[in-house]
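Forwarding these from the shared drive since the link keeps breaking.
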Amino acid sequence: MKKNPKLPKPTKYSKRTIIRMPKLALARIPAKLPKKLKFRRRTHVDDKLVEALQNLPRITNETVAEHREEVLSSARKYIYPLSHSKRRVIVITSVLLTVAVFGFIGYCVTALYKTQSTGTFTYGVTQVIPFPVAKAGKSWVSYESYLFELRHTMHYYETQQHENFDSKSGKKHLTELKRQALAQVISDAYTKQLAKQQDVSISTAEVNDQVTLVRSQNRLGSNDQVFRSVLNEFWGWTVNDFERELREQLLAQKVTAKLNTGADTRAQSALRSLNSGTDFATLAKQVSEDAPTKASGGDYGISIDKSNRDIAPQVSNELFQLPVGKYSDVINASYGLEIVKVSSIDGSKVRGAHILFNFQPISTYVKPLADKNPASRYIQIN
């Protein structure tokens, strides 16, 4: 057994030992310490994230189907409300669109059939939507064709005659123009029925030939720019509008010529007389149907140039191709059949005579058809 080691003897300082600490470098201590140190604590979201990660199931080949169904079932609660919202949007959009369409149609019906607007917007609508203005027998007459006929006449009177259609006399005149335009488009509808019965049609080549003939005589301008300008200034037309109107006129002329066999018979008889040696002036006094020139042997009584608008383009064209003293074959001048003769040529002008055989107006052939199948008008013009 070992003895306890001896302890040192106590000194006079044993009861109270003083330990001297080294002096601190005060300069290293900041003058002010922050009252409270900021430490980042774990938030509630972090705790949830940790918990979610801990609870995240492990997906294996055996459990993939189960987890897939679990994910899809969770997503369905968002898909179904979304599908419902889409259906609701479609329904609301359809309702608004239907209301807008019916409102637009209601406005158009009011503007066309009640107030009978002739404005540019209304005309544009009729070019897209085939509103009817009348029915001629079995043929519908479009409101667009009526406004086409009316608007170019109004344009002429407004720009060339300075007519004010807002004045009392102007309103009265406008009413008359409306009646004429409606009667014209109904007559055109019956004319097309007659043309179909008679197997008559107008080709694009015939229209182009007529345009070329008119322009060659400088009746509507010497070049394309002037031609378009004249059409727009006088009638508010484009070139296509002019060709459309020309086609209607040519069709009526062709139908009339085919149905009016009496004029053709008389004209051919007169031509045979001339060919057999009968004097032109003598024959004109006997058979011509032009009252103003008949007594003078068919003499026009004026010098004619190519741009003379009192002479039909077809007749003028023949006059400037004939030598002096010669007469032409029978010419279809739209209003009748003519035979012309050149009396003299003076530079760019000629003097001549003609024998005219008038056609019956197209109304002569339209009337029986209209009486059999009366037209129904959908606007009341007062």
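-- next protein --
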Amino acid sequence: MRMIHIEEYDAKTMQLARPIYDSHKRILLAAGRTIHEVYLQKIKQFNIRYLFIEDAESEGITLDEMLDMPTWIDAIRLTEEVFMEVQKVQTITQPTLKKIQEMIGKLVLEVQKRPILVLVPSSSVTSEIKPYAHAINVTLLCLQIAKKRGYNMLQLRDLAIGALLHDIGKVISEDNDKHTLNGFQLLRNVREISVLSAHIAYQHHEALNGNGAPRKIKGNEFLEMAQICGVANLYENSISKGMLAPHEAMELIMTKSENTYDHAVIQAFCDGVPSYPPGTKIKLNNGEVGIVYKIDKNIHRPTIRIFPTLQEIALSESPTILIKNITA
């Protein structure tokens, strides 16, 4: 299995490996089938950019590093319910908060059992639910970074609530410039939500050097949890909205070290998120082409399956062989 841009889809050689969902989280197309051209055009109209497919080149690739689709879709569904409730009643009710806490407990367990994390891009779903998929992905990334930072369970839960609701202020007012303040004010007035979680929503666009927003705080005023959310938010937006490849988004994140985010936060991110996820087609510096088959000893030096011989090369054991670029 591998993930491709929808324009790369070839009905002659590929079939769906994971279902495609509509804006109501219903299955549009089930896994295990090819996509007729008519349906392919309809999917494009939903602004779905990525597909998960099986083909001969990706045989044996499992993407175990990625959250399973039913869990991801269920989390998106609940996040949409939360945002809709806030838009309607301007607060988070106790029953909804309990659902959030239960879901976060599941996400924490999902991240803890995976040494590394690969995201399902929010651009793989319809436009209507992209904001909620984005919120889930930011939460997953935050949990992965925090795991590398050694956070305890209470810290993980406070971080996850703040990350999940970092954009909740956008449904309170049409003034997007005030979404961090609006989110903070909403969350700090929910008694059961930690003030740390509220500050994550408030600070996730700030920067160490004081060039962030909305308050232009700097240095130690910029909480580490909010920095983690900022890194996760930037990365997810880069691969989904900016259409950057994972290694390009990681390079962008690395340029933010010590000016926007603390080096320790950047390092934790780099230690938990791979530059080249399994299924990525690549070209090596020796001219050979292949596909990232698995990640084992070194998160950024994966094992490559070479075409057409199907020989496997572990880059972690081949220091002179480098990935030159990714290919379609």
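Strands lie at 2-5, 15-16, 20-21, 27-29, 50-54, 281-284, 289-294, 303-307, 312-314, 323-326. The chain has three domains: 2-58, 69-272, 281-326.

- D.
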